[in-house]
Design a protein that fits this description.
The chain has about 300 residues and is mainly beta. It has helices at about 5-20, 100-105, 270-280, 295-305; strands at about 30-35, 40-50, 65-70, 80, 90-100, 110-115, 125-130, 140-145, 160-170, 175-180, 195-205, 205-210, 225-230, 240-250, 255-265, 285-290. The chain has four helices and 16 strands. May have a regulatory role in the membrane interactions during trafficking of synaptic vesicles at the active zone of the synapse. It binds acidic phospholipids with a specificity that requires the presence of both an acidic head group and a diacyl backbone. It is a single-pass membrane protein.
Amino acid sequence: LCSQKTKDDCSKEAELSDEEPKEEEKLGRLQFSLDYNFTDNTLVVGIIQAAELPAMDVGGSSDPYVKVYLLPNKKKKFETKVHRKTLEPTFNETFTFKVPYSELGGKTLVMTVYDFDRFSKHDAIGDIKIPMSSIDFSQSLQEWRDLQKAEKEESERLGDICLSLRYVPTAGKLTVVILEAKNLKKMDVGGLSDPYVKLHLMQNGKRLKKKKTTIKKNTLNPYYNESFSFEVAGDLIEKVQVAITVLDYDKIGKNDAIGKILLGGTSTGTEQRHWLDMLANPRRPIAQWHSLKPEEDINALISNKK
């Protein structure tokens, strides 16, 4: 269900990419705006549109979205909505970072364009990095820039989880199947973890129901295939969210959270996309991979929704 591309496809792609002259790689362009609001100490980043993106899918298209964050801390990451099957997406979304002007010069803005893929890790198409010290904030800026090859973010990866969502409106039943996780971050001295998954059905920041999977011992790539159902009436399905936390079981101490995601109509990026795909396909299980995020980032998101 959550299979990757076949090995043949991958080796074909490798052959093709070897033949291309490297300097010819055009990754497309991104139009953005930057503005600093001196009254409330905020940097306002507008992601306007992208053009001439390379086709990342077999069908000759891409499903682009943009992640926006400030280095060095990376704590607050924003994502635009995913735009289906287009190489010229119009985003028109703005994101606000609270940062004192005195600290702005030491920061670097990163805007990375990704290709959304339901069945595997999302590929970075390219990014733009702008040292804030190079920008004159006495006026607002709007410009196009070429995307550069994006560096891998492997060091901070927490792992990925694959799950399916299914909603049956007539029965008011939401079913979440936790399929598998992979490349989980090592939490134990021995270099492995004992991962299990906790599910919380939530509304307005409150936990309504709680469920959890079995514990898988000594693995960073656990396979679960465990199904959980929640009763959610039709008028509530737009308002609830499902928080999914992968934890490392510890007999003695506290169970550490490896990472977390929040699914729901009011979520952002790929988590929201998965939820909307589920609602658009009643009674059909829709499976998708998600990259885990730091637990504190998701908890902050949840408390904002109260």
